[in-house]
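For reproducibility, we list the full input for the nicotinamide-adenine-dinucleotide complex.
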Amino acid sequence: MRVCVPRESGPGEHRVALTPEMVRKLAAAGFEIVVERGAGVLAGFPDDAFEDAGAQLAHRGEHLGGVEGVVRVGRPPDEEVAALEAGTVLVGFLQPLTDADGIARLEERGVVAFAMESIPRITRAQSMDALSSQATVAGYKGALLAADRSPKLFPMLMTAAGTIAPARVLVLGAGVAGLQAIATARRLGAVVSAFDVRPAVAEQVESLGASFLDLGVRGEETEGGYARELTPEQQEAQQRALDERIPDFDVVITTAAVPGRPAPKLIPASAVDAMRPGSVIVDLAADTGGNCELTSPGHETAHAGVTIVGLTNVPSLMPQDASRLYARNVVALLEHLAPGGELTLDFSDEITSGACVAGRPKEAAA
Ligand code: NAD
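The corresponding predicted structure, in tokenized form, follows.
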């Protein structure tokens, strides 16, 4: 199977879908890999390293010639979709729940598209779980951003000049990103509390040395382990409870999400108003609108002395290791779809069928 790695074109996207290490692995497994020149440069992987690992380098415009597969991080631009032959396999974060037009374009073109977001979260597919790998990076970076923007030290310091109290950090949403943010903030010495609507996570929060904040709101969990959206009454109760508790914290890191829905609004403007000057909110849900009413996605803003970090695509701020992890997820999926480098799509398989968001053969239609 001949597979191309294009240079990403999304704004601020510094990651790349394969690393030289993974190219070497795929080449040994029978794949032929073409890398668009410059594809890995922003992630710290120069063209030479890909060539040494066995990839062919191609200039833009020539990179898609004769390929049976394209692996990328973000959605393909229109001109790339137009250049793909019918039957080409495409792998990436294709946003199937929020980009219906993009998926329709792939379907029209006959591209067989696999969305990393749609890989079922079953044990057998854990090595392909790119939502988790990238959320891990986001959670880590979110805690570092918070520590960097805060005018307070995170650890307690006992010095000859007296004692500095540790920073108090609140993490809202204790899924993959939230748990990593908790662990990172704890390593930096902060005193951490966390809340999630799925009560099952309380134990995980506590095992990381943080305390679970009881806001008196309990949501439901879907079969896939995701949260269900709260009812308007529950949302209001959550906002009221947070309004009261948030001023106790120096830093709030939010990661709350419900798949395919805009981020739940947890922090109303009134809660920001109640925070002390110098407090910091890092809103890791900014990509889907943000958990704070005052978040401006893509920007860092200040409101009455409170810094609100609404940067989007946070995993791309750590492009080298984010790409390393993502590339391993992509390789695990490719080896599943094309064992030994031979494309053999089996739509009776739960992973292949679950991840396919366009171009499914009619006889395999669900
Ligand atoms: P996510 O990114 O969809 O959401 C992040 C967190 O926000 C979740 O924990 C969710 O409960 C929480 N949330 C939603 N609405 C909220 C609200 N109003 N207030 C506070 N918190 C709110 O979730 P995720 O990080 O991708 O993980 C979801 C679950 O899936 C976790 O339990 C995780 O352990 C599980 N998971 C399972 C597997 C597997 O079995 N292979 C792999 C990865 C993750």
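The mean pLDDT is 95. The pocket of nicotinamide-adenine-dinucleotide is lined by residues 121, 126, 129, 131-132, 135, 172-178, 195-198, 225-227, 230, 238, 255-259, 264, 266 (CB under 6 Å). Both points were considered when choosing residues for closer inspection.
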